[in-house]
Amino acid sequence: MTLMALAPLYGRQAVQGKEPATPSPQKMDVLKQLSASFEEVSERSGRAVVQIFVRGYVAAEDSGDNSELLTAQNSSGSGIIMTPDGYILTNAHVVKGAHSVKVQLNIRTEEEARNQGDTTMNRPLAGAIVGIDRETDLAVIKIEKKNLPFLTFGNSDELKQGQIVLALGNPLGLDNSVSMGVVSAVSRQLKSDSPMVYIQTDAPINPGNSGGPLLDTNGNVVGLNTLILTQSGGSEGIGFAIPSNIASQVYTQLKTKGHVHRAQLGLVAQTITPEMAEGLTLERDHGVIVSDVEPDGPAATGGIQDDDIITGMNGRNIVSLQQLEARVYRLTPGTKVTLQVHRGDSTVDVPVVTEEQAGEELDALADLVDPLKNLVPELGIVGLDITKEVLKLMPELRRPAGVVIAARKANAPFSGAPLEVGDVIYSINRQSVTGVAQLRQLLQGKKSGDVAVLLVERSGHLIYIPLQMD
Question: Which of 168, 170, 188 minimizes the C-alpha distance to 178?
Fold first, then answer.
């Protein structure tokens, strides 16, 4: 290609060296305005993004050493200040197994520190875990601080593919970082058996970004940066954020109740496939067919019947089970919805009031564990005393005192039938066990070859489990 052939791309005067090549003033103004808007969003929103430091305990790789049931680990992540009095939203995996939580505010100048009454120039603050929801990977923590900058939720349902977004956080420990990208997909399902959906974005997200906000160009939180798909260990342009319309509902419940109540319709359904439509001689080859209705459940009470085809909810079309589950997933128990149902030759509206799903007791029990106080190395378990909180989660226990197994080591330090998470130990060799401290005392001094017969409640039944200590 000759120099003259290049000239039209850059301007003849630039090629001749008379003056530098520049875009037209109108185009420059557009770029400046775009850049200025990003600068403003980053500056204003960044102050409400914090760095979270966690010292916690995680399950160690199995070995013969009982002391390695849990191992200490330091980690960090990001969080979003959601209220001026210090409620912070982050990922559950950021605070997993936390024994201590510290929060570093994003105070940028000495003057700003004084305005917030920070005489220690922004030393990390102690954080308390308010609630954790492992199913959505969300958690809420609280710091004792007033007049904090905060962010608000946007409407993730309004996101469009290709829309510009900003990811804020502390990737790889580099505090106060911002990256830009677009929404790659608005409703990405990562597991076929999970109703959870994510926003996919190519905004670079790396370890440490977890818990930080995904912002629209107005500075609203449209997602919570959560995970990446990677082969290299770093960002490859495939990041995922929890949609704000899911995060906001979970946040509200965690903040007010400490846990999440989830809704269900009380039915079993499947996405209609062409083979299903042909074999069942269905008039429709799309939608969701009901294969079973829970007796006396909300769907049955509302009038849903076997073989009904659900085609919509609250006026919005439903073409797959995943869509139905995703929409119910956002609801709270007691919410009234209207299902559009195709039945025979007619279409009817069926009102259904959702009810609460059965609780995930084992996940909730894990939230009560203090790894230092609850470790029983002689059995390779982490146990919990039966307290009022435990009884709320396990109201049908056969006895009021004992030790609930909240975690166990796969390679147990004894011979015999394995203990299981959720087992409740009531006695050892006919000596009653009232708590973790007494359980450790009864096991203390037992030598290799000694026998311990545990009375255990499992699935509502009392059984003896003989063990021989290694």
Answer: 168
Question: DSSP assignment of 117-168, as one string?
Answer: T-TTSSPPEEEEEEEEETTTTEEEEEES--S-----B--GGG--TT-EEEEE
Q: What is the pTM of this model?
A: 0.73
Torsion-angle region of 283 (φ positive above 0: left; ψ -120 to 50: alpha; else: beta): alpha
Across 28-32, 69-73, 183-187, 451-455, least confident range: 69-73
Pairwise CA distance, residues 22 & 140, whole Å = 49
- Which residue in 229, 244, 140, 131 sits closest to 187, CA to CA? 244
Residues paired with 104 in a beta bridge: 51
What does the block give as tokens for 71?
């191992």
* DSSP classification of residue 46: H
pLDDT digits (tens, 9 = 90+) for 227-268: 988 766 666 778 999 999 999 999 999 998 888 888 999 999
Containing 65, the helix (H) or strand (E) segment is none
Instruction: Give the burial class of 127: count Cβ atoms within 10 A of its Cβ; 0-12 exposed, 13-18 middle, 19 or more buried.
Output: buried
Measured CA to CA, the distance from residue 410 to residue 63 in angstroms comes to 9
Among all chains, which residue has been given the structure tokens 């400046």?
Answer: 32
Beta bridge partners of 342: 309, 347
- Residue with token string 């330091």: 74
Strand pairing class (87-91; 316-317): unpaired
Place of tokens 């609630």: 131
H or E element in which residue 103 lies? strand 98-104
Task: With beta carbons less than 8 A apart as the criterion, state whether 413 and 470 touch.
Answer: yes
- Residue 379 CB-density burial (10 A; 0-12 exposed, 13-18 middle, 19+ buried): buried
Q: What is the pLDDT of residues 286-318, one digit of tens each?
A: 889 999 999 989 999 999 999 999 999 999 999
Q: Among all residues, which ones are annotated catalytic?
A: 93, 137, 210
Domains in the chain, start-ordered, CATH in brackets?
A: 3-43 (no CATH), 49-143 (2.40.10.10), 156-257 (2.40.10.10), 263-356 (2.30.42.10), 361-469 (2.30.42.10)
Instruction: Give the span between the Cα atoms of 384 and 319, in whole angstroms.
Output: 45
